[in-house]
Design a protein that fits this description.
Blueprint (H helix, E strand, L loop, with lengths): L12 E5 L2 E7 L6 E6 L8 H15 L3 H11 L20 H6 L8 H19 L2 H10 L1 H7 L6 H27 L17 E5 L5 E5 L1
Antiparallel strand pairs: 1-2, 2-3, 4-5
Helix pairs in contact: 1-4, 2-7, 4-5, 5-6, 5-7
């Protein structure tokens, strides 16, 4: 969800037509009723397909895929058909206005949604140079972050930043442990061989036997 509003949304109503769900709810900014078309509840794409899309978009825009994964888990729990009470749509919960700004034609298409969401997240990272502020802006909007010059004091936004941050930290720790487990064992250096002085046997002029070290 890319924008927070202090005005609670009215209880939505919905109807099914032509295989799609028409959802009618109040616009939180204007109070006017708006109609949204939700995608039909088709089966979720295979998880690997979604993961590949995340990796591809993250590499393209130079964003840590673990951060994108953490954000998606908090936003939609990987449900490409998710619609929030405020109207945010798809895996990365794009608001319709943001999706339009980013050139998205179908927010319920996983490829379009992830590409646009990662692109927007990268823009926010570059804008604030701080992942916490970037996440706060992703949730509450850049205007709210700029107003307070910090994470806005909205409970929803603070909880959101903390949830994504915790998941991201856990994911990075798990990845580091997995990488360490795959490291080949280091060669144990052999202990240096102990050297003992050699003994030399000799006899003196009287025929007596002696031992001496070299």
């Amino acid at each position: 969800m890319l924008a927070a509003s202090p005005i609670p949304a009215a209880e939505p109503s919905s109807a099914v037509t032509g295989g799609k769900t028409l959802v009618v709810r109040a616009d939180p900014r204007t109070g006017k009723l708006v109609r949204l078309v939700a995608a039909p509840r088709t089966p979720k794409p295979p998880q690997k397909e979604i993961t590949d899309l995340v990796d591809k978009a993250a590499r393209k825009h130079d964003v840590d895929p673990l951060l994108v994964d953490s954000l998606i888990r908090v936003e939609s729990d990987y449900d490409p058909h998710a619609v929030s009470p405020k109207g945010a749509q798809g895996l990365m919960q794009l608001m319709p206005s943001t999706a339009k700004m980013l050139g998205v034609s179908d927010s319920f298409d996983p490829g379009e949604n992830i590409e646009a969401g990662v692109k927007y997240l990268k823009y926010l990272q570059g804008l604030y140079q701080d992942d916490r502020l970037a996440l706060a802006a992703y949730n509450a909007g850049p205007a709210a972050v700029e107003k307070f010059n910090n994470v806005p004091p909205y409970r929803e936004t603070r909880d959101y930043v903390d949830k994504v941050g915790r998941r991201y930290d856990e994911a990075r720790k798990a990845a580091a442990q997995a990488a360490q487990a795959q490291q080949p064992p280091q060669n144990i250096q052999a202990q240096p061989e102990e050297r003992h002085p050699k003994l030399e046997v000799f006899t003196d002029g009287n025929g007596r036997l002696y031992l001496r070290t070299q």
